[in-house]
Amino acid sequence: MINKKISDLSLLEQDIWLNFCYYYQCELDDESIANEDQTYIDKKEKNIRRMQQNDFLLSELMAFRQEMMGETIPFKPFQIAELLMLIYTLKVEVSNLPAKMFQRQYSDILIAYVQLLGGLEFIQNHKLARSAKATLAVKARYDKHLYPRREIIYRILREQVVQRGKWDNPNQAVNFIIDDLIKAFEDYDVDWLQSELVLKQKKLKELEQQSKLSTKQTNADFVGIRRKPRTASTSKQIEELKKEINNLKQILKSKYPSKEMEKSKYKMPYSGGYIAETIIHELRSQPEILKEILLNAN
What we know:
This protein has helices at residues 2-23, 30-34, 38-52, 60-69, 77-93, 99-117, 126-164, 170-220, 232-253, 257-263, 275-283, 287-293. It is mainly α. The longest helix has 51 residues, at 170-220. It is globular. Helix content is 75%, strand content 0%.
């Protein structure tokens, strides 16, 4: 498992170096970028120190394109240095991190890289591009629930301040409300699952109607009427929707829907085994909320 994590980090690191050396004059070639010998590691570290000072000229190609076509450079060298340092730090810590925490940190670096480049199409390695696409899709689903679930946290904290007063520190506050919070998240999860089920069932009905219409149109071809045939993509969509609907039903029928969601693609913010730790960490960066819930927030 650790080897797989290191491999993923190395693949990301190599792609970052390749893109950097495309845009800027870089002493490393493709072979040395992929090489893990100490000599090449020392060369990379030397380049990173230069990156941190923005001590790099544009490559001849990019200088020409910038001058002739006004093409912009998506990143500064120091921004690439920051990503590479995050990767090196994560490589050192990989054996001590729980799988979920590693995946979260790796995904954050990967997403930051895509944002720095300006799009998935600029990633050079196809495997990494597919991974980034999947990660962004998960992030989009995750972010959709982040704000409403964060508001649940703040609401319960404020309610408890009214009832019992403020706490001494974030740890005390979160541990006090954690049971109520988990129950509120469970209610949120069930409401969302039910809503998602209704949406998927509606979509399935629409696709099945389209499929029936396509079948009738195909039959009309036999009498000389030209019609658009039923597409294979529609059939595939129907099968995938049926599987998803069945999965949603099974989760809703389970004794603990929220726990079952963690095993599927329906990952929610503030779920899993580190709920309290995650919330405490985030609260420390929210001074306005801390003023509302702590006796001494300074």
